[in-house]
Each structure stands twice: as C-alpha cells, then as structure tokens.
Design a protein that fits this description.
With 456 residues, this protein is an alpha+beta fold. It has 3 domains: 8-93; 153-289, 2-Layer Sandwich (Beta-Lactamase); 304-454, 2-Layer Sandwich (Alpha-Beta Plaits), CATH 3.30.70.270. The chain has helices at residues 8-35, 39-42, 45-93, 115-148, 153-168, 200-209, 267-294, 304-321, 335-342, 344-360, 385-400, 430-446; strands at residues 172-179, 182-189, 191-193, 213-215, 223-226, 231-232, 236-244, 247-256, 325-332, 367-372, 375-381, 404-406, 409-411, 415-422, 452-454. The strands form 4 sheets. It has a 5-stranded antiparallel sheet with strand order 2-1-8-7-4, with helices on both faces. It has a 5-stranded mixed sheet with strand order 10-11-9-14-15, with helices on both faces. A hairpin with a 2-residue loop joins strand 12 and strand 13. The longest helix has 49 residues, at 45-93.
Length: 456
C-alpha cells in the first residue's frame, strides 16, 4: 500500500482520526436504530457534533496507545540497529587481530509473543548471522596470514591445529599427511595417537566419503587425550579429510570431551577447511624438494653440500653449549680395484651397502654424509674422540666380517677411518675439524689400511 504522506506514523494519525470522524457521523444513526429514540432528539447538529468529537478523541487516544506501544518498540529496534551500525564501523576500522564485538550486545528484547516478537527474533538472528560471518572472515584472514608466513610442514601443521581447535572446539588435535602411500604423523597437540593401531581402510573410507567423520571413539584404543599426568578417552573425535585438486593430502583430527562448537559440513566450515589444504600440499612439495636436494641419489644419505651445512650447524651448536663433537672420515679400501675388477655397478652396490650399514648403526641424531667418491663423513654429536673411535672400530669389524655377495662374486670390503674431535687446540672451525679427520685417514692408509686412527 502506497503511503499518503510519505510517513507511516502520519498516515496512522490520519487513518485513526478519519476512522474516529466516520464513527462520529455514523453513531447517531446507530443510536436511532438501536435505542428507538425519536429522530428529532437524535438527528440534531449538537448530537452529531458531540459524536464526531468523541470519535476524534477515541482516534487520537488510539494513536497515543500506538505511540506508547508499537512506536516505542519500533524506536527501540531502530536504536538497536543504529548501535549495531556503530559497532560495525568501529570493527571495520579496527586491526584484523582485534576481537569482534558480542552479538548479544546489540540484541532487541523479544518479550512479545506476537508479530513484534517475531520481528525482534528475526532482527537478532540477522545480527548473529552478520557477526558470525565477520568472525569467520576475520578468523580466516588471520589464519591465511599465519599460513603465508609458514613454510615448513611442521609450522603449517601447528597453525592449522591451533586454528581448527579454536574454530571448531576441542582439547586436542593431530595432523597426518599421506606420503608414499602411508599416513605419517606430522604434529600432535595434547594427543597420544597410536597410528599402527588404526586400520588403513579407515583412511580410505574417509577420503572416499570426502566429508568429516564424527565418532564417539576410535576402534583399537588408538587415540587418547593427554592431560599431562594421565590419559583419558575422548568422547568425540572428528576426522577431517584434507584434499587438494582431487589429491588426498592428509587427515586432521580433533578430539573433545564435549560436542564441537560448529557443524563440520556447513558451507562456512567446508570453505574454512579448504583454505588449509593448499598450504599443506605446498609444504609437502617443499619438503620433498628439500629431501631431494639434500640426499645423495645413489646411497640415500646426505650429500656433501647439505651435509656440510648440517655439520656447520652442529659445530656452532657445540661451540655455544661447550659440548663435544666428533667426526670420522671414512674411505673404502681399494675401491678402484673393485670397480676395475667387477665393474662400476658392483662399486655402486658396495657404496649403497656401506651407506646402509652406517645409517643403521648410528644414532638418529648423528649424520652420515657421502663426502665424495668412496669417502663418507660420519658426524657424532656429544661424542668424544674415544667414543667415536670405539664406534668406528665396531663398524669396521662389522664390515670386515661381512660376507658381501654380488651376483656370483663374494666381495671382500674393508675401510679406513680418521677421527677428529672438538674441542681441540688444532680445531677452531669446521674446516679444521674435517682437515684433522682427513689427516687421521691418511695416516690409517699409510699404516696399512683397515684401521681407525685418531688424529693427533
């Protein structure tokens, strides 16, 4: 209906007064018919005037009632909307890290159980929707900013687990990534997870469904909430498949003792999850490239370039913390003769075997580097020269007694090694440490090979 005056309130006044005037004009005829009074006493100008005045008074009273009830409600709703707009403007001007205001601060009262109450409820729902959208948008912006500043897979995993835990709720989390067909744990927070207890078909089914799975428990007693002094079984476990361009990337797990705050299958939640997958995928690619750049293709141990970089890091750490650091320079005895007699493939076989023996018999914290040709450099953190000498002698005897068969040939393989250690008067930097170990190796060769010598 088109407004007469351009103002709903003014239209209301006109309609109410007009209705009062109409009732004042009709009422004398109604009185004449109902009370059967003489027309000469009813249809008089004075009676008409009194009825019109009474109708106008009733119409005006109705307007006052409207002002006191409906208009007041609408005014309050208008002020709530203005307050909400002020909050929005302040929020837009605030930095991205600032907190969003509470939607409840702008709510209108919903005491009425009629259409006005429904309007209030709809208004409050609208505010909640807008604030929730702003929260999601700001959280996403902060999330993406943190991810953009994270390059390593472990750092990306930490950002994702922290943000997912805050967004969906949960007391613990973990991230598994798919590498070479196997699910590997990258990071966990307050979670004890026994990956070997989880069935492989669980991941296949999860990737096939392409949607989060919410369960009350994991079969096989494989996931626990770690509270420091004990472990407890979670009541809710959410497994979120992560895919990028139809390629399976990994699974993010959230565990909680109470229902999660958000629905994982809503459009907002799915968009939020999808923001994370490209960064995990890129971090995996970066990790693979780093491994390719760091590993010697033939032997599978560190190559010289990356290995020396790691040795320099360990040397600097040893200097800072005044901890011993030892290296052993290893050379395979008569390696050229093996190549000349049995061929270069046999030589490659010997190199791979030696690298495997070294890698499997040193600590995880130690380094095995292919220094060049048939030479290896072994780095032992926290080990003295005597400790390193004993380790190398065990390895030397192991290799000497090994029956190494290549095709129809039994190969006799031995190695010589020179050991150097820091701190030492002759070692001031990494180069001097390697030079000392090389001097020990040279002396071992001079003395007949197949022996370990500590550089003097």
């Amino acid at each position: 209906m088109k407004s007469i005056t351009g103002s709903v309130v003014k239209d209301q006044v006109i309609f109410m007064l007009g209705f009062g005037l109409l009732m004042g004009l009709i009422f004398p005829f109604f009185t004449l018919w109902l009370l059967q009074l003489p027309a000469s006493k009813v249809l008089t100008p004075l009676y008409f005037l009194m009825c019109v005045i009474a109708g106008l008074i009733v119409g005006f009273c109705n307007y006052l009632i409207f002002r006191g009830v409906a208009h007041r409600f609408l005014s309050e709703l208008s002020s709530r909307m203005a307050f909400f707009q002020e909050k929005l403007e302040v929020c837009r001007a605030a930095p991205a890290s600032a907190e969003i205001f509470q939607a409840e601060d702008c709510y209108a009262d919903t005491f009425s159980k009629d259409i006005l109450g429904e309007i209030s409820a709809d208004f409050n729902n609208l505010i909640s929707t807008v604030v929730n959208f702003m929260e999601v948008e700001r959280t996403t912006d902060i999330f993406l900013d943190k991810l953009k500043r994270s390059l390593k897979l472990e750092d990306v995993a930490g950002v994702i687990l922290d943000t997912f835990s805050d967004y969906f709720g949960g007391q613990g989390s973990f991230l598994l990534v798919l590498e070479r067909g196997e699910m590997n744990l990258v990071k966990s927070q307050f979670v004890e997870i026994k990956k070997d207890h989880l069935k492989e078909n669980l991941w296949h089914e999860l990737f096939r469904q392409e949607k989060p799975l919410i369960v009350s428990a994991i079969e096989g007693d494989a996931i626990h909430l770690n509270i420091g002094v004990a472990q407890i079984d979670p009541r809710y476990v959410a497994l979120i498949p992560l895919k990028y361009q139809n390629e399976n990337v990994g699974v993010c797990g959230l565990i909680s003792m109470e229902p999660f705050k958000r629905d994982f299958v809503s459009l907002e939640a799915r968009n939020f999850i999808q923001q994370a997958t490209p960064f995990i995928y890129n971090a995996l690619i970066m990790k693979r490239l780093e491994v390719m750049a760091a590993i010697d293709e033939l032997t599978g141990v560190l190559n010289r370039r990356f290995g020396l970089r790691r040795l320099n890091e360990e040397f600097e750490r040893s200097k800072r913390h005044r901890m011993p650091l030892s290296v052993a320079m290893v050379d395979i005895d008569h390696f050229k003769k093996i190549n000349d007699t049995y061929g270069h493939q046999a030589g490659d076989f010997v190199l791979k075997t030696m690298a495997s023996i070294f890698s499997q018999n040193v600590r995880v914290s130690d380094l095995v580097i292919r220094y060049g040709g048939e030479e290896f450099l072994l780095v032992f953190n926290g080990a003295s020269a005597i400790d390193t000498y004993q380790i190398m002698e065990k390895l030397r005897i192991m290799v000497e007694t090994l029956r190494l068969q290549y095709g129809a040939f039994d190969l006799k393989v031995t190695f010589s090694a020179g050991v150097a250690s820091y701190p030492s008067e002759k070692v001031s930097d990494m180069g001097a440490l390697i030079q000392q170990a090389d001097a020990g190796l040279y002396k071992a060769k001079e003395m007949g090979r197949n022996r370990t010598i500590i550089a003097g």
